[in-house]
Amino acid sequence: MDAAAQAFPIAVAWTVGGLLLVVAVTGLSRRVGWSAPLLLVTVGVVSSFLPFTPDVQLEPEVVLAGVLPALLFAAALQTSFPEVRARGDSILALSVGLVLFSVVVIGFVTYWLVGAVVGGMTIAVGLAFGAILAPTDAVSVNALVGTGRVPRRLASLLEGEGLLNDATALVSLNTAIAAITQPEDGFGGAFGDFARAVVGGVAVGVVVAWVIVRVRRRLKAPVLDTSISLAAPYVAYLPAYFIGGSGFLAVVLTGIWLGYRAPSFQSAESRIAERINWRTVSFVLENGVFLLIGLQLKGIVEAAAKTDIGFGLGALIIAGIYLAMVLARFVWVFAATALYRFGPERLRERRWDWKTALAISFAGVRGVVTLAAVFLLPEQTPAVGFLQLAAFVIVVLSLLQGLGVGPLVQLLRLPLPNPEQDRVQIRTLVAEAQDAAIARLEQESTDDDPTDLVASLRRSAEYRVTIGTSDEQGLIEQPDSFARLRLLMLDSERSAVLDAQREGRFEDSVIDAVLGDFDSMEATLKRSYRRDVTKPVRPPLRLGRRRHGG
User: How many CA atoms does the CB half-sphere of 40 hold within 13 Å?
Assistant: First the structure.
């Protein structure tokens, strides 16, 4: 057996071992209440110095074009479109304004600090490093807000920022890299590149979302629908990338719209399968990337050792850059807070208090994007090895800082999600849906439907079927009528919930919980009867006249 043939099973073995390690470490972190990303990075760092661990080179193109689109798409599917629309200006202020401000501040500080020690340092290199550190990380933010220890408004702002700021930062990075490799051109085309990236990303995202909705509406098999879903982030990313647009912006817009429109074009089985599959994909990718980040430390340290910057001086430079990054976020967020509190009335209606501003400022967690983007710096970049090490250290410091967000929220006494309040909202929303279901039952039932069946459905509009109980004895005898009427009722219940979502009267977590419950009911119903009830069956009018009462 030649060396190439032997290398493949060895690579598979390391991959499987890494996956099992990710599962074990993540499970341990959940049990003891530690940060999973931070623990995985630590395990990766320790493993990288073991003699039997192979050298790991995480290619930035693999992360940016292969991993990140899937992670952003999975997060976008769970993002509330009404929430983004309602707080769009706030999210744009963080994902565009704050990123550009951070690029400039970090860029000049990097140019000043590193340039004082290393010759050949240019402002373009400083701005490129500023673009690398500017974006918060959607994966790290989701790990932070997923604990339930931050207020919902804070969580929605951080999630929206993390989804959209990658596009701003990477466009800025590409512009700065062009200035490094072609200094004679300068930054003349920066605004044009940025405009093309935004317009191209938005256009591709809108078109791809429109096409995918119409394609998936015609697919009835969940396995086919889920296959299209798995391809969707790359169908959005690649066209935008090739026309010079922002592939990340296209992916995010596609994911948000598909998640919002899912109840209108997917079956219940497809939605359940999609949620489970993307949850698994996200778990493997996001946690696996953090482990790989730690495994790269050995190579990063070796590259940094080749520069002329000593340990003590390097630590001071990294501390200065990190402080500039943190202060830039604080300054921008508090300036935006002042504008929302004392600016035009339209902004004052959506203002947040100073405590929330402090929590937002403190939650600037960096992660996968920063560690992938730093390897995009050209080889001729001055002190490139040191900059890679600095990016790694700053990511770890930001993850450690993220551990303090929960205690800070408690110290500031910001309102946390209230499970009891959620249960009250769920009961209220389900009651509205039941009213719609009963109205649909009265409209659709005919004289050919057994009276006892219609009465039983009316009494238990919420449909918690327990086969064999006295209330449901008559349902088994008329499975076709029962399935037809119950699916029609569920359709009306779902429509009532979606109307409530558009009106913004309930928390997104409540909407998701109720819609998920309806999907489970519908899937269970379709599995419980032999007749194909993949679509609600409307009886021909000749079967009988409709009931309009008791």
Answer: 30
CA 183 distance to own-chain centroid: 36
Torsional class of 382: left (φ above 0), alpha (ψ -120 to 50), beta (otherwise): beta
- The segment with the largest mean pLDDT, out of 157-161, 320-324, 514-518, is 320-324
**Cα separations in angstroms, 34 against 42, 112, 235:** 12, 37, 36
User: Which residues, in sequence order, are CB contacts of 519 under 8 Å at separation 6+?
Assistant: 268, 271, 272
- Within 10 A of 320 (CB to CB), how many other CB atoms are there? 15
Residues 6+ apart with CB under 8 A from 263: 271, 494, 498, 515
Helices 311-342 + 384-402 axis angle, to 10: 50
DSSP 101-152: HHHHHHHHHHHHHHHTTSTT--HHHHHHHHHHHSS--HHHHHHHHTTS-S-H
446 in helix, strand or coil? strand
174, 196 Cβ separation under 8 angstroms = no
Ramachandran area for residue 504 (φ above 0: left; ψ -120 to 50: alpha; else beta): left
How many other CB atoms are found less than 10 A from the CB of residue 68? 26
- 446 DSSP β-pair partners: 546
**Length of the chain as a residue count:** 550
Report the C-alpha dihedral over residues 506, 508, 512, 514, rounded to 10 degrees: -10
Residue (of 423, 390, 356) closest to 109 by Cα position: 390
Q: Which residue's entry shows tokens 């493997």?
A: 284
- Note the helical H segments in 243-296: 247-265, 268-295
The span from the CA of 507 to the CA of 510, in Å, is 5
Written as six digits, the tokens of 437 are: 């279901």
> Helix-strand-coil percent breakdown of the chain, rounded to 5?
75, 0, 25
Could you tell me how far CA 65 lies from the centroid of its own chain?
Answer: 16
Mapped onto helix, strand or coil, the DSSP state of residue 225 is helix
Residues 233-256: pLDDT tens digits? Answer: 999 999 999 998 888 889 989 999
Q: Chain-centre distance of CA 236, in angstroms?
A: 16
Cα–Cα distance measured from residue 107 to residue 93, given in angstroms and rounded to the nearest whole number: 20
**% of the chain residues with pLDDT over 70:** 85
- Of 532, 534, 79, the closest CA to residue 262 belongs to 79
The pLDDT of residue 184 is 59
For 267, residues 6+ apart whose C-beta sits below 8 A from its C-beta are 220, 222, 225, 522, 534
Rounded Cα gap, residues 301 and 296, in angstroms: 9
DSSP state of 51: T
410: left (phi over 0), alpha (psi -120 to 50) or beta: alpha
